[in-house]
Design brief:
Blueprint lengths: L4 H14 L4 E6 L6 H9 L12 H8 L1 H4 L5 E8 L7 H4 L6 E2 L8 H20 L6 E4 L7 H7 L4 E2 L5 E2 L7 E8 L23 H5 L5 E3 L2 E2 L5 H7 L15 E3 L3 H4 L20 H4 L3 H5 L3 H7 L8
Parallel strand pairs: 3-10
Antiparallel strand pairs: 1-2, 2-7, 4-7, 5-6, 8-9
Helix pairs in contact: 1-6
């Protein structure tokens, strides 16, 4: 006898929380609501040299999730908090040190989230009695607009800094998705959900961005974003942007640090995301410059930086 979808979905959400996720929502598999805005962003070249974002096959997958997983019916979206308190300002503001974004202070989040999503997928197959049901899991590795789906799942609202913001806990969380061919009981559509706060007239993130990467509210020009410049860009950083970057060497947290909603952020309960020492968050630049391939691999083993 098949388990009722409401009971199966409720048990699925509980299992996701038991696996350590802080948020979980269940949606009907469909293209992202703001796919048109993404397509305009690509057409305007604001993705810079991240050509994989504009590949025709990837765009097709974003338009039709059935290309990713034939017969897909449901999408489970999960969130995992990663905020850890920063080291003293005397360390992060030291010009002899290079700052690293908060999300990269601990173990690579892909290593934490992907196995848990796979475990959740296996649990769902067993509990549903559909052991052969197909599924796919992604942690920002697939052609899925996770933040848009996270908003649809009720995790929060999209801020002017383009990040997904939980009005009760801020924006310091990772997203992951599980696609499944199984039907589930779906959460209310966004228009049926209670209204959530938004940015209102606040422009702190736009004003604080050192490189003026926001061409307008809710639109990020990656070509000027410090995270893009220090992670995705393969060539030389444009000369005119270099003096604006401060001592960031991997990523940037400025638009999150100034967001009023992040005053509600609570330190993550995931031990793997905590830095083992202050040098992880802001290593001495001379130490970094002295690394070769072997010592780089050892120093950043299991880190998003190595990835």
């Amino acid at each position: 006898m098949a388990i009722p979808l409401e009971r199966l979905t409720g048990a699925l959400k509980q299992r996701a929380l038991e696996l350590g996720f802080n948020r979980v929502g269940v949606l009907r598999a469909a293209p992202a609501r703001r796919l048109d805005a993404y397509m305009r962003w690509i057409a305007e070249g604001k993705h810079g040299e991240m050509g994989y974002l504009a590949r025709p096959d990837r765009l097709d997958r974003r338009r039709d999730p059935n290309i990713i997983l034939p017969g897909v019916r449901s999408m489970v979206v999960v969130g995992l908090d990663y905020y850890t308190p920063p080291p003293p300002r005397t360390i992060t503001s030291d010009p002899s040190r290079g700052r690293i974004s908060n999300y990269a202070w601990g173990v690579d989040y892909h290593e934490i989230m992907t196995p848990r999503l796979e475990e959740l997928a296996g649990w769902l197959r067993r509990e549903s009695g559909e052991e052969s049901a197909s599924s796919r899991v992604y942690v920002d590795t697939g052609a899925i607009l996770e933040r848009d789906h996270g908003e649809s799942a009720g995790f929060g609202f999209t801020g002017k800094n383009t990040l997904l913001i939980d009005p009760r806990r801020g924006s310091w969380f990772f997203l992951g998705t599980l696609l499944t061919a199984l039907p589930l009981a779906y959460d209310p559509e966004p228009e049926e959900q209670p209204p959530v706060p938004g940015c209102g007239s606040c422009t702190r993130c736009l004003n604080a961005c050192p490189t003026a990467a926001f061409s307008q509210p809710y639109v990020l020009d990656a070509r000027r974003c410090i995270s893009y410049l220090t992670i995705e860009l393969k060539g030389w950083i444009p000369r005119e942007l270099r003096p604006l970057m401060g001592n960031w060497v991997y990523g940037c947290d400025v638009c999150q640090e100034v967001c009023p909603f992040n005053r509600f952020a609570r330190p993550t309960g995931e031990p793997a995301f905590y830095p083992v020492a202050p040098d992880v968050a802001a290593p001495p630049l001379l130490d970094i410059l002295g690394l070769d391939d072997e010592t780089f691999g050892r120093r950043f083993d299991r880190s998003p930086i190595k990835r």
